[in-house]
Amino acid sequence: MLLELQRAFRATVTGEADAVAPFVCVARGPATRRIAVYRNTVQQSLVDTLATAFPVVVRIVGARFFRALARDFVVRFPPAVPQLALYGAGFPDFIAGHERTQMLPYLADVARLEWARGECYFAADAPPLDPSQLAGLAPERLAAARLTLHPAARLVRSPFPIHRIFMVNQPDVIAVPPVDMSIPEDVLLTRPGGRVDLRLIAQADAAFVAALAAGAALAQAADAALAADAAFDLQGALQQHFARGTFAAVAAD
Amino acid sequence: MSRSAAAPLATSPIPAAAGVGLRLQHLPELAAAPDDAPPSAAWLEIHSETFLVPGGPRLAMLTDVRRRHPVSCHGVGLSLGSAEGLDAAHLARLSALFDRVKPGLISEHLAWSVVDGVYLNDLLPLPYTERTLAVIAANIARAQDAFGRQILVENPSAYLGFADSTLPEWEFLARLVAATGCGLLLDVNNVYVSALNNGFDAAAYLAGIPAEAVGEIHLAGHSVEDEGEARVLVDTHSTHVCDPVWALYRDVIARIGSRPTLIEWDMDIPAFAELKAEAARAQAVLDAATPQEHARVA
After folding, report:
1. B60: nearest CB among A126, A152, A194
2. Does A34 contact chain B (CB < 8 Å)?
3. pLDDT tens for residues B110-133?
4. What is the pTM of this model?
5. Interchain proximity B55–A124, CB inside 8 Å
6. Could you tell me if A53 lies within 8 Å of chain B, comparing CB atoms?
7. Domain residue extents for chain B
């Protein structure tokens, strides 16, 4: 009986139908007016949650369009857990498949970048890899070593200039030169010292990090980077990643 | 973040004084103060679910703030009113947070937000019947078992009632207290909002609440939408506490004595100083009612 009522309430607040109306009594005025308070609160609060998580998407499409898009998402895919910081993981894919965003083919990747930024911010704490752990390894063991990414490290690769789009859509940016949409960009997010570091990295470096993230040994990952750019500097790349806290651990046989 | 690695905290009791609801906008400002700085408020309350994240700066800042303040953990997602019972995973997440924060009080709502594994992010209303009483009492007992301590249960603001309801809300709460040993978090603004929306007498409601069970009081502002038949008070927590709610609060404190009292503000959130000014108004009520008790707490 209570379950039946709660299911009717859910249908009502995530849709238009007043399925819960037969259960309800009100002191005055139409019951639909009172039911609407709950529907508005549920939908509005979840739309606001997405607007907080995806501010660059809001800025690109405008607040009104975003609300309509987010409302579609909210009623079809309401949260499965009460931690709203974790709500919206499916929104970038939803954008990619939505008929009304097809004229903005880069939008889903920008949303993926924003989601990655949130994941980086909320990821588990762990000390970054101490580079001295690699220093003592013999060359053949170093080549076979596997580096584990830090829990906060995220790599977002795109055929669109997502870093540039992200940067020119920050609140303090007013005048923007035209952006060449044909440039692919890769962004690495890390959290050195507890602050999110979001930066454009070279495609070879991105291939290197992607290979390590997929479980490749250091030598294989270096090969993947060199395939993208024969001038890839492994030593220099490792130094930068140690400084940014890209890795958390090393496993050497 | 090195400060966060310090020794574990001991539980600090929540004083019978006026505290402030801690919102994310004010978290960096409060966390930046040195550990030996005076407290920013007599005590703070967090929304538990806001801090149920794996790690990162938000949790680190909370640890820094906690070191200078007693903190209460106020849940918004456990869904004590769910017909399906409570989510074991969520109970475990909350327990882990309580281990970390060592809250002086923990609380939840007489409401539901979860059905069929979907979280609706609102405090939805319940019919007050003998059958729902049994469901909710079992849920409260399970939560108290999982946490190993008492929880306070808050009266919700309501915009409608149910044809099936046979018990007034205050009696339903009194029955939950008797059945489970839970305490009550009395939200005076919610009583006022529900009374005007649903046509009952707020003073009679407050007189019916078992005074000894009240462990905390909430105060907040609401908004008024529409006029005439369609008029409805909405519990937006977006403004100052209104005068009729202050009057009800003074009456409650005069009758039952001082209680920890919280100012809640969740939309159009002003500077922390303005929240402190609102808390000072509540503190003046507490001081006037039982100065000797306040002196003991301070």
Report:
1. A194
2. yes
3. 999 999 999 999 999 999 999 999
4. 0.94
5. yes
6. no
7. 2-6+16-297
Q: Which fold has domain A125-253?
A: Outer Surface Protein A; domain 3 (3.90.930)
A10 CA to chain B: closest CA distance, Å? Answer: 7
> Rounded to an integer, what distance in angstroms lies between the CA atom of residue A226 and that of residue A208?
9
pLDDT tens digit sequence for B259-294 = 999 999 999 999 999 999 999 999 999 999 865 444
Consecutive 10-residue averages of pLDDT for chain A (253 residues)? 96 90 92 94 97 98 98 97 97 97 97 98 97 91 96 98 96 84 97 97 98 98 98 97 97 85
The reply to whether CATH 3.20.20.150 applies to domain B2-6+16-297 is yes
ipTM of the complex: 0.93
Q: Do B198 and A9 touch (CB under 8 A)?
A: no
How far is the alpha carbon of B50 from chain A, nearest alpha carbon, in Å? 6
| Closest A-chain CA to B223 | A37
CB B248 within 8 A of CB B220: no
Give the mutation candidate from A35, A81, A154, A190 for the B interface (greatest B CB count, under 10 A).
Answer: A81
A193 touches chain B (CB under 8 A): yes
Residue of chain B whose alpha carbon sits nearest to that of A82: B77
> What is the H or E stretch that residue A32 is in?
helix A31-53
The per-residue DSSP string of chain A comes to -HHHHHHHHHHHHTSS--TTGGGEE-SSS-HHHHHHHHHHHHHHHHHHHHHHH-HHHHHHH-HHHHHHHHHHHHHHS--SSS-GGGTTTTHHHHHHH-GGGTT-TTHHHHHHHHHHHHHHHHSPP-PPP-THHHHT--HHHHHH-EEEEPTT-EEEEESS-HHHHHHHTSTT----PPP-TT--EEEEEE-GGGS-EEEEE-HHHHHHHHHHHTT--HHHHHHHHHHH-TT--HHHHHHHHHHHT-EEEEE--
Domain boundaries, chain A: 1-104, 125-253
